[in-house]
Amino acid sequence: MGLFFKKKRVESHLPSFTEKDVKLSISKGTDLDRQIQMINLTKQDLLLLKSLKPEIEKQIVTIIDSFYELIAKKGNLVSIIEKHSSIERLKKTLTLHIQELFDGIIDDSFLQKRLTIAHVHVQIGLEPKWYLAAFQDLLSSFIATISNLQMSHTEQAKLINAVTKILSLEQQIVLE
Ligand code: HEM
Predict the structure, then answer these.
(1) What is the ipTM of this complex?
(2) Quick one: which of 12, 60, 116, 156 is 20 to 30 A from 123 by CA?
């Protein structure tokens, strides 16, 4: 009995939502709809992402700093950034962008935003290999955040799976 209560308490510290709190609304028969089916991204995944959002928010400064520390090591990427924007500006943009990934919403606006991001990165001449390489740092940070949560490995694996699905979808859209 004691164990039962202990387990319940540690697992309940992520907020829980119901299906009406998330949105998966993509026109049927489109490529995006098929991509979502192919990676089996479900409302259940969106619920998991949304429940993770407060934990990501707690770590967001560390996540963003780590991302730009990595970029700062690559001279050509710093040059691109300084030519078109600034690290300070992009830190704010990426902070918002990452938080939105955990809103549990995939709709036309989600798609449009990623198409704009793709366009912007093509315009500045960012090669896909650097975009993808930078993504790994975000994934590692998300996994580190999840690994530090007090919950069963099964629950952690579900969260990590949901995170990899949304990042995969994002990459599929931006790199198309
Ligand atoms: C712009 C995300 C990688 C350089 C943006 C924007 C987002 C974003 C959301 C704003 C787009 C808009 O204006 O609507 C990401 C993500 C990345 C990534 C998620 C990978 C995980 C990179 C890398 C560079 C870079 C590696 C290095 C050069 C820029 C620049 C802009 C920009 C310079 C601003 C362009 C402008 O305002 O004219 N990015 N980015 N991004 N990104 Fe990235």
Answers:
(1) 0.96
(2) 60
The radius of gyration of the chain from alpha carbons, rounded to an integer in Å, stands at 17
State the Cα–Cα distance between residues 171 and 12, nearest whole angstrom.
Answer: 31
Read off the pTM. Answer: 0.92
From the number of C-beta atoms within 10 Å of its C-beta (0-12, 13-18, 19+), residue 117 rates as: middle
Judge whether residue 167 has pLDDT over 90: yes
Residue indicated by tokens 């089916």: 37
**4 falls in which pLDDT band (50, 70, 90)?**
low
Asked if residues 99 and 57 have their Cβ atoms less than 8 Å apart, the reply is yes
Mean pLDDT of 146-158: 95
130 is written with which tokens? 């650097």
CA distance 105 to 39: 16
Say which residue the tokens 């530090």 belong to. 148
C-alpha torsion sign, points 50, 143, 56, 107: negative
> From atom 27 of ligand 1, which residue's Cα is the shortest distance away?
77
Q: Which of 93, 98, 109, 169 to mutate to test the pocket of ligand 1 (most atoms within 8 A of CB)?
A: 93
**pLDDT for position 13:** 80
Q: Whose CA is nearest to atom 17 of ligand 1?
A: 131
Strand runs labelled E in 1-99: 23-24
Q: What's the token pair of residue 167?
A: 């990042």
